[in-house]
Amino acid sequence: MTDRESPRVLIDRIPFAEGNIGEEAILAALLQDLKVLGVTDISVCSNMPERTQLRHGSEIKVFPDTFCRLPRAPFQVSKVDLVIWGGGHMLQDRSSRLYIPWVAKNLLWAKWLHTPRFIYAPGLGPVLKRSSKMLSRWTLNGSRRVIVRDRRSEDFLTEIKVRRNVLRTADPAFSYATPYDDQPHRDTGNSPLIGFAPRRLFYRVGSWLPVSAQLAARPENPRFDCFIQETAAALDVLIEKCGVRMRLIPMDLGPNPRDDLMCYRLRSQMVNYGAAEVEDDDPPLEEFVRRLSELDLLVSARLHGIILGLRFGLPFIGLDSDGKIAHLAQSLGYGDYVLRDEEFDRDRFIALVLKVLENRAEIQQDLLRQGQALRQAAGRNRVELQQVLQELS
After folding, report:
1. 182: in domain
2. Contact 298/195 with Cβ under 8 angstroms?
3. How many alpha carbons fall within 13 Å on the CB side of residue 387?
4. pLDDT tens, position by position, for the chain (393 residues)?
5. CA within 20 to 30 Å of 335's CA: 77, 78, 151, 167, which one?
6. Which range marks the domain in which residue 358 is found?
């Protein structure tokens, strides 16, 4: 790296601003880390560059991450001092066999061009194909640091024999700081406020097509319609018998899968739809976090809804489709608070909601303590990044 005021950094992957709140939180946490470390020459690859620029500031440079710009990728990688690669759920071939080659392309260019690489605490797996495992190993080996967010990802690295410079910390979203992080919870008394963050569930093994093409083209799993009906009926019971208030919270407003449409679909199946508000105004990330602080319970099919809520000790019930939420809940000691989509039962769900609401003060204190520990663990991401930047200077 040449002697200059700031190293040149390229932040790559998962569509950081395609409407997914979790991915935006990861990017925001990384940008906060870089600001603290004095890095100002920052470029970001994004599937929605205009949105990235709008929501994360004009001081960063944004490159469209599209097929048409593939020929320019080597040039962009060659002009930086460090490629930082990360996101929520990386290196998996369950949704599409093309996923790993696509998300790893800039890492591969960096390896060929001898540009240093830093793996910024993603989740890894599941990787099913032998060829995908070989590509994953070749892509990650030689990185200055390979940081992962959880034990399952660490086990995957062991399986594919990536052992050097490996560290397990916590998801970067845990370290994302807002002005509301120490805000005390406001007691809602006899009218608890429940947030519900749905998604298109019943994960299925994909094909060679990109994920967006599969979601748009293939017929929906018939079990999902049953799931929506059962969930709507359960929410009606909770509203009528327990006086709860409902907020339906879309966490991914990207072109696909459009969680806001899932919210409206769920609301349309409810008898008491007037008691369910859909928050489809696409709030800034800080405002989204503030709204989480108002909830008594979050029912979430999105992992980062739970992660962002833990700063408040927000009690949760997870709706799991691919194992990520179940893994986090088990690590917290709340594995029984997760329902698999294919095993969803209306009565069990209602009983679980009532159990959480009855014990929410105790649960909140426990989750608040664990959330603080995870925030400290995520702070290691910045420490390791600082060390790598010092190595390059």
Report:
1. no
2. yes
3. 9
4. 545 578 999 999 765 556 889 999 999 999 999 999 999 999 999 888 888 888 888 889 998 888 888 888 899 999 999 999 987 767 888 777 788 888 899 999 999 999 999 999 999 988 988 999 999 999 999 999 999 999 999 999 999 999 999 999 999 999 999 999 977 666 666 789 999 999 987 555 555 555 555 555 455 667 888 899 999 999 999 999 999 999 999 999 876 678 999 999 999 999 999 999 999 999 999 999 999 999 999 999 999 999 999 999 999 999 998 889 999 999 999 999 999 988 899 999 999 999 999 999 999 999 999 999 999 999 999 999 999 999 998
5. 167
6. 193-372
> Token pair of 3, please?
């002697």
DSSP string, 330-393: HHHT-GGGEEEGGG--HHHHHHHHHHHHHTHHHHHHHHHHHHHHHHHHHHHHHHHHHHHHHHH-
**Is 3 part of a structural domain of the chain?**
no
Specify whether 150 is located in the same domain as 280.
no
**Contact yes or no for 382/390 (Cβ under 8 A):** no
Could you tell me the pTM of the whole model?
Answer: 0.93
Nearest to 111 by CA among 63, 143, 87: 143
Distance (Å, rounded) from C-alpha 79 to C-alpha 277?
47
